[in-house]
Every structure is written in C-alpha cells, then in structure tokens.
Amino acid sequence: MTHFNRLVAVTAMVAMAVAGTTNLSFAIEKTVRNEAKKPNAVDLPPAVLAAFHKTYPKSKVTKADKETKDSTVYYEIESVDGKMKRNILYLPDGAVYEVEEAVPASSLPREILARLSADNPKARVERAERITRGTVIEYEVGLEAGEDKSEVVLDATGKILKSEKLSGKEEDESGEESD
Fold first, then answer.
1. Distance (Å, rounded) from C-alpha 63 to C-alpha 119?
2. Do 76 and 113 fall into the same domain?
C-alpha cells in the first residue's frame, strides 16, 4: 500500500470513527477495493458510507454504484447481512431515498398473498422484495407459471400498482439467459 493510500485509509477510518461507526475494517476494505479497480466500484461520499454503517453495521457491501434519475444523483449500495440481501439508494448527503429488501414468500402480508393467489392461481412466487420509500411500502414480486413469468408491484393493501409479463427466457443481471 502506498503512503498516499495509507493516508486515505487512515483518514477514512478517522472520519468513520467521528461519524459514530465502529466498523473500521470497512474503510480498509473500501480502500483495497478501490485499489483493485473492480468493475462497478465507485467512490461513495463519506456521508453515504457513514449513514450505511451506522444503520447496517454488520452488512457487507457487495456492490456500489452511482445513478442519476431525473437529474437527481443517487448512490446505490448492494449489501448482504447474514442471509438478508438489501439494496439502498442514498442521496449524496447520506439521506436514504429507498430500501429494497429480499423477503421470503411466506413473509409477504396476507393481503398480498391473497391478491396474487386470486389473480394468478397457478403461479408460484419466484422472488419477493419489500421496497420502502419514506413511509410508503410496496412489494415487488416475481411470479412463474410454467414458461410464463411476470412481475407485479403491489402496495401494502394488495392493490396492484404495476404488472408486467416477462418472456419465458429472461436475462439475469450477469447477461446470461436463465430458464
């Protein structure tokens, strides 16, 4: 590690300690990740890092990205905390815009399960996520019925907000086809 990189790591650790987090190993991990120049690694603002580690001290960052939507800049952190997969969108000042958390189908509210069952009796839940924006909670559910796949977004009462049919073969995030 060069003198400059050690200085950056120490500065990051001090900043995180001042911000009230105790997970100093993340600063070193981030420095190492940036040195390796991994794809999709971005420099996250200190306010975003501090907010993430204060709220999710045991989570491991798996990916970080910078996004712009409607001229607003967001920083997305994909993380794992035990078995919980979570994606968080932050504003540059560290304020949380949105949290997506993977949830087991059995944990979906009964209103959601009832609506899905009524509208898609032969479909099974392939994946489910709880999306929280402030006080608004929505559920994004991937369904599969044989070759047919669909994605449904519902509010907490079971009202369908969006429904989309997907092709029988769908590309996953790595660009490979899955059946």
1. 35
2. no
Boundaries of domain holding 152: 103-170
Q: Which amino acid type is present at position 108?
A: L
Does residue 179 lie within any of the structural domains?
no
Mind listing the pLDDT tens digit for each residue in 108-148? 999 999 999 999 888 999 999 999 999 999 999 999 988 88
In angstroms, rounded to a whole number, what is the distance separating the alpha carbons of residues 40 and 24?
22
- pTM listed for this prediction: 0.68
- Name the nearest CA neighbour of 152 among 119, 176, 175, 121: 119
Phi, psi of 34 (to 5 degrees): -70, -35
CB proximity list for 115: less than 8 A, separation 6 or greater: 154, 158, 159, 160
Task: Give the type of residue at 36.
Answer: A
Instruction: Answer for the pair 152, 143: CB distance below 8 angstroms, yes or no.
Output: yes
Q: Tell me the per-residue pLDDT of 73-89, one tens digit each, with 9 for 90 and over.
A: 999 999 999 989 999 99
- Same domain for 44 and 121: no
Same domain for 1 and 79: yes
